[in-house]
Design brief:
Layout: E1 3-5, E2 12-14, E3 26-30, E4 35-41, E5 47-49, E6 57-59, E7 72-74, H1 83-86, E8 88-90, H2 97-119, E9 136-140, E10 152-154, E11 157-161, H3 167-176, H4 184-200, H5 207-214, H6 221-231, H7 250-273, H8 298-320, H9 333-346
Parallel strand pairs: 8-9, 9-11
Antiparallel strand pairs: 1-2, 3-4, 4-5, 6-7, 10-11
Helix pairs in contact: 2-4, 4-7, 7-8, 7-9
Length: 357
């Protein structure tokens, strides 16, 4: 994730920081500016920014709640909550310490996901403001064995099982489902892919190019899900998909691909902010497409050549500390072609020449 410099003293501060350890200024993320502000607290509790600014800010109403929100709200905004918190419609019962910690972890992951979405200038509107096309999150914990809580998306409403905030339970699910990667942030990236498919692809001119790459999404989803659970991923999936789960249905292929693109964007941005320059590896093998396939664009190939060595270094660093690979994937040409499609869909939203900041 991104890092910043304190506006008051230029010390290094992090996306989740609430106070500068060097000058003690209060910190908060300003979603409209996509940056971290530094403030001093006035006697009346209001925030005075350390630099001149035409905008004034106040803490999100959830700053003192169990979720410990670190985002700010413009002083002229009638809403009490920040943009990220306004996306949350349901939280688990806060009477238990377990649920309070779960809410905190879920909101932290959501803010990380949302910061990337804002960097890409994608539309983000709470469902409370737009009941038809808005987005909302429901964080639920199962209390009745007969009514399981399933992580998923339906018409702009994303449900995430609060048990996913428990690293032990998450590791158990990862092993049971034979997944190489399972994180809270990954859930937000994947499920948001379903939402943006509805928003950007479903009724647009992109639907036919989508089908040409991902397949016909009109095939019965329930049958595809049952088939996947019974037989597992399509044999040989490694030659065309980002993951085994992506073979289940074109919608899941898109959501998995969308998530991988957000992985790519965030990793590249983080490396650039830290000024980490490994250099491109010219011999990074990008599988040659078949004669009837469209080649990858030069712009996207440049991204892949910058991104691939970063994943190799990240994996090597993890191994040196005794951890599993941070990015346990090897992407074939067809998977990269799908990721480029996501890049091309997002690119028009971003001012300038590309989707990366």
């Amino acid at each position: 994730m991104r890092v910043f410099r304190c506006e008051n003293c230029q010390a290094l501060v992090y996306f989740s920081s609430v106070q500068c350890v060097n000058c003690q200024a209060r910190l908060g993320f300003m979603p409209e500016e996509r940056s971290m502000g530094a403030f001093f607290v006035q006697e009346d509790g209001s925030l005075r920014r350390c630099v001149d600014s035409p905008m004034s800010w106040r803490r999100c109403n959830n700053a003192q709640s169990a979720c410990a929100c670190t985002w700010l709200v413009r002083s002229d905004d009638p809403e009490g909550q920040c943009l990220s918190c306004r996306l949350t419609a349901t939280i688990p019962d806060q009477q238990s310490a377990e649920n309070r910690q779960a809410w905190r972890d879920l909101e932290s992951a959501k803010r990380n996901w949302l910061a990337t979405v804002l960097d890409l200038h994608l539309p983000v509107l709470p469902r409370s403001a737009d009941p038809e096309r808005g987005l909302s999150f429901h964080f639920l914990r199962q209390t009745d064995a007969s009514r399981p809580v399933l992580t998923g998306h339906a018409a702009g409403e994303i449900t995430i099982n609060a048990i996913e905030s428990d690293p032990v339970e998450r590791a158990r699910s990862r092993l049971a489902l034979m997944e190489p990667y399972r994180t809270l942030l990954g859930h937000f990236r994947h499920e948001s892919g379903h939402y943006y498919w509805d928003l950007l692809i479903r009724s647009s001119l992109l639907i036919e190019p989508f089908r040409a790459l991902f397949g016909d999404e009109s095939i019965d989803y329930g049958e595809a899900l049952n088939c996947h659970h019974e037989h597992g991923p399509t044999p040989g999936w490694e030659s065309a998909y980002v993951s085994g789960y992506a073979t289940m249905h074109p919608w899941e292929d898109w959501a998995e691909t969308w998530a991988h693109y957000l992985h790519m964007v965030d990793l590249l941005n983080t490396a650039r902010i830290w000024q980490i320059s490994i250099g491109t590896i010219e011999d990074v093998r990008i599988e040659d497409p078949l004669p009837d396939h469209v080649p990858l664009s030069a712009e996207f190939v440049a991204m892949v050549r910058e991104w691939t060595p970063l994943t190799l270094v990240a994996n090597s660093l993890n191994r040196s500390l005794g951890h599993e690979d941070a990015y346990p994937f090897a992407l074939p040409y067809l998977a990269l072609r799908k990721i480029q499609f996501v890049h091309d869909v997002i690119k028009p939203f971003h001012p300038g020449t590309g989707a990366l900041v």
